[in-house]
């Protein structure tokens, strides 16, 4: 495992052809325009939604019906994008709810200079797959806890030591030039397609089994708030609709935010107008009954 190099080593190679991509299936995320785009870089959304068009991104429409779930479709293209879109030297995968702000080159250039196969970020708070399994079960992120436990125990039975750390898979750098990219990504897809549980459970096993060279950044991408803005998923019920609209725009500048905020408020009110109207009518009727 390598560590992040100092910023003064950041000498860009503008001859490299780069790809930034995200995968959104099942209307899971609201993708937004990157704040600052890299030069000589294509930005693609891989999706099954024919209506998804986002300023700053190209849309690659695919048929997801051959996959068991939207998550399976996401993992397939996340892992095997180099077999779908060719001609790139480097790619950066980001989850659909992550917005790139500034300074992505501070991670990209050291990764490219390292010659490693993958560039990965450690988990923010957990360091073993066992901890991740427990967290997924306790938070209700899996439909069948026994399937997740069986998968983990299967990896242990094959010799997986579970002591090499845990990876957050929301941002992944890939070296498309090396021949060593195929095996780990194929195995990752096979593990997920067989189990369809959680991608962060299988990736440490895959890295141990296939042993690709990994450029490990010094902390979770969640810590780099100047570069990555993380918003709630589109249907996350823990957050209000207004917050989910305003959060992704919060770093676009004060003027833009002031312009967008009233629109977001109007959008939420209009969307929930019938619900609000029925509550008001119900309350008024209740007042009339009590007076009578």
Could you describe the 3D structure shown?
- Residues 49-217 form the TOD1/MUCI70 glycosyltransferase-like domain.
- InterPro entries: TOD1_MUCI70_glycTrfase_dom (IPR048354).
- This protein is an alpha/beta fold.
- The protein is 40% helix and 16% strand.
- The chain contains nine helices and nine strands.
- It has a seven-stranded mixed β-sheet with strand order 3-2-1-4-7-6-8, sandwiched between helices. The chain has a two-stranded antiparallel sheet with strand order 5-9.
- Helix 1 packs antiparallel against helix 5 (182-195) and helix 5 runs antiparallel to helix 6.
- The longest helix is centred in the C-terminal third of the chain and has 19 residues, at 273-291.
- The radius of gyration is 22 Å and the shape is globular.
- The relative contact order is 0.15.
List its traits.
292 residues; alpha/beta; Spore Coat Polysaccharide Biosynthesis Protein SpsA, Chain A; 2 domains; seven-stranded mixed β-sheet; two-stranded antiparallel ribbon; disordered N terminus; membrane; transmembrane helix; transmembrane
Shape: globular
Domains, number? 2
Count of individual beta strands: 9
Helix and strand pattern: EEEHEEHEHHEHHEEHHH
Question: What about the largest sheet?
Answer: 7 strands, mixed
Strand content: 15-25%
Cα Rg: 22 Å
Mean pLDDT: 82
Show the helix and strand layout.
Elements: E1 18-24, E2 41-47, E3 58-61, H1 70-84, E4 90-94, E5 98-100, H2 105-114, E6 118-122, H3 129-138, H4 145-157, E7 167-175, H5 182-195, H6 199-210, E8 214-216, E9 228-230, H7 241-246, H8 254-271, H9 273-291
Parallel strand pairs: 1-2, 1-4, 2-3, 6-8
Antiparallel strand pairs: 4-7, 5-9, 6-7
Helix pairs in contact: 1-5, 3-4, 5-6
